[in-house]
Amino acid sequence: MDEPRRLERYVTELFAVEDSDLAAIRARHAAAALPPINVSPEEGKLLHLLLLTIQATTVLEIGSLGGYSGVWLARALPPGGGKLTTIEKDPRHAKIAREAFASAGLSARVQLIEGAALDVLPTLSPGFDAVFIDADKEPLPQYFEWGVRLLRRGGLLLCDNAFFHGAALDESDRSGAALGVRAFNRLAASDPRIVATVVPVRDGLLVGLKVAQ
Ligand code: SAH
Ligand code: DHB
Ligand code: MG
Description:
By secondary structure, the chain is α/β, with parallel strands linked by helices. The protein contains 8 helices and 7 strands; from the N terminus they run H-H-H-E-H-E-H-E-H-E-H-E-H-E-E. It has a 7-stranded mixed beta sheet with strand order 3-2-1-4-5-7-6, with helices on both faces.
């Protein structure tokens, strides 16, 4: 095992141990042949911890897949009042995610909206404590604008795949996805409403704080 993987495993085994609900969700992913692109346990733990630091009660996720990241997010919300809204366009993924939230006892805290993000986002009311973006990459500049608009001041803008397997650094990669990731990162780095950096966990987690409306 190379050194970064060894260090990652150390963190996972000490700080991000999965319980049986999370392990079952990953097993269900594999059984249903969902793409294995869920966040890793240590990235899930980081998302969970970031929500706790701001005492988040309302969180928006774009891209549910099978509910794995959603469980890490929803578990950071207060059982009485918190709510995760998660958007998923693939009906098969949405069904599996709903089952995951139910089996983890989180259905009361999670609203899954089935649809394409750019159709759903205009229907949501602003004021979210955190927005986690983890769907298709080409529209990322639009997701940036929606994310910032829907966040309260002091809220967290979180975006997976900031490195996009190195394509973020490779200007010769002109694919729509690579262009989307690079544009998002530049926006997050330069928009005066956001203070951001990238945490080099897995494929890069962009973490931003909305400091101005
Ligand atoms: N956050 C998940 C992984 C998401 S994978 C986890 O870590 O567990 C990306 C998901 O985004 C896929 O399920 C895909 O179907 C969904 N998706 C892709 N494009 C989308 C769009 N335009 N609107 C909503 N969901 C989308
Ligand atoms: C891939 C990984 C992701 O986390 C994602 O959101 C999209 C794609 C990938 O490995 O291709
Ligand atoms: Mg991702």
